[in-house]
Specification:
alpha/beta; 45% helix; 2 domains; five-stranded parallel beta sheet; TIM Barrel
Length: 344
Amino acid sequence: MSLKSCKRFIKRIGFSLASILPFGLLRSASGRDVLMLNYHSIQGWDVNEVIRTNNSYRTLDEFEMDILFLKKKYSFIDLPTFLSYAKRQATIPVNSVLLTFDDGLSVVYSQIRPILLKHKVPAVFFINPHFIDNKDLHYQRKKNLLHKSLKDNDLIGDFESASNLLKDAGISSKSISSGIDQISYRNRKVLNDLARCMSFSFDEYLTKNKIYLDSSQIKEMIEQGFYFGGHSLDHPDFNELSIQEQYEQTVGSIDEVCEMYKQKQRVFAFPRNDNKIKNEFFEMVAPHCEASFGVGGMIDDEVAFHWRRTDIESSQVKACSALKFYYCKAIVKQLFGFGIYKRK
């Protein structure tokens, strides 16, 4: 069993054990004033399974069941209400929940938005300006599409040129497929050249497949009461970036979202994991960002304006069981003095 599989197995045992405990007692004992939840997509939405990320998603029915459960147990709040609380300018309703969505995928308009409107639930959507209107694809999606092209067509195109492109990018591999695996955000531009060698067109793919939200959809959602924030310009792995590059990705995405869509709230959600982001970065962005959001569950952060969200989307169990588990983790961490995430 791989380490990843082992972790999943242990986690499922934790879900089972926590499920027998009283929900209200766990929620109260955790001392959480507000629950922040993070979603991305809906299961089965991607046009081909191979271009899915490692995330596990809810089905549409499961997502609506989450919303119904949360409506029963919590009070949904909008972004301005949350920011008033975050800045200690106002108290917040007991057992509040802030709902957030990352990546700006078009599925949030076509599938998720109708459910939120049906149940009158507010939400915040964090988007990558470089992908809006299907202008470009995330580099990991490009990698996955090239893998699929290799599998389907056994490399139609110039094999020698593709190998040379990888070598020029500093990638040494025994196959084109393993070479694609090694392509990082830093050398992502080689993916466009590889696609040409393989007779694959990302532009044609984007024309046929509406992966991301377009501006008209975003404007309509804003008119319907939803809010938007930055999620970096093009979804890099922040661990690959210098602090200056992290700053540019963060403030740049906030600026573009606020300017393009007249958003007054300057908020940001990290792409991927925020665990290794340093205090120096937060000091740099503080004048430009009212609140930032990461992942990591029910634990406070030593950075006053940074908030860690909880993921029940990929738990593969009902919302009640997933939240019981995370409340248990929060209580244990507090008991052992790990209730605040410390940064370098």
